[in-house]
Specification:
It contains seven helices and eight strands, in the order E-H-E-H-E-H-E-H-E-E-H-E-H-E-H. The protein is an alpha/beta fold. Helix 1 packs across helix 7. The longest helix is centred in the last third of the chain and has 17 residues. The protein is globular.
């Protein structure tokens, strides 16, 4: 069975309620979410190793997970939601102490994010976005309003999501059930 690899955002956790909704509405695929963190190079290595060892049909992610998805050594389709486009600048606001969302499998609850860790993100570069679909909100409450210009420049395939479905940076169940699932299925029909 083909797999979809989901990559969560900064301070996130792999098997969130939104991830469970993705699985529920797309049961014809095997879903896997990889636990990443604020160590850019180690997280990228983990992602690329997973892709090399599995039959991945699509890589998807949100926020920092979207950035990781874009940098992954994977030439198939990618679907990103409100992806970080310049983590070195966009993550600067998180320097210092941070708390993970509850429920991470590694058991971590908090961490200190340093300038050295931030600098690692400058070593990663997105690959081609030709096979990538970008969903984004009109008012990104975390990455800022200017990130929309990056999306317009980077993605031929992009979709501005209605504010009622995606009012800010973070995903919600209604968005996952509707627009995300519809576009995901359109992308996957092409490769099955």
């Amino acid at each position: 069975m083909k797999e979809i690899l989901w990559i969560h955002g900064f301070c996130g956790r792999p098997y969130s309620n939104n991830f469970k909704e993705m699985e529920k509405y797309n049961p014809q695929y095997q879903w896997f979410s990889i636990e990443v963190d604020h160590h850019a190079l180690a997280s990228m290595e983990k992602i690329n190793r997973y892709i090399a060892e599995h039959d991945v049909a699509l890589v998807a992610g949100t926020s920092l997970g979207g950035f990781y998805a874009l940098c992954a050594e994977f030439d198939g389709p990618k679907m990103v939601v409100n992806p970080a486009t310049n983590p070195v600048c966009q993550l600067r606001q998180f320097l210092g102490h941070n708390t993970y969302k509850p429920g991470r499998p590694d058991g971590q609850t908090d961490f200190v994010f340093t300038n050295e860790m931030l600098a690692e993100f400058g070593l990663l570069k997105p690959r081609s976005t030709a096979n990538s679909l970008c969903h984004y909100t009109a008012h990104d409450t975390v990455l800022g309003e200017d990130v929309k210009n990056d999306y317009i420049q980077l993605f031929e395939k992009r979709k501005l999501i209605n504010e009622d479905l995606l009012p800010g940076h973070f995903l919600n169940v209604e968005y996952v059930r509707t627009v995300f699932t519809e576009d995901l299925q359109r992308l996957l029909i092409r490769i099955t």
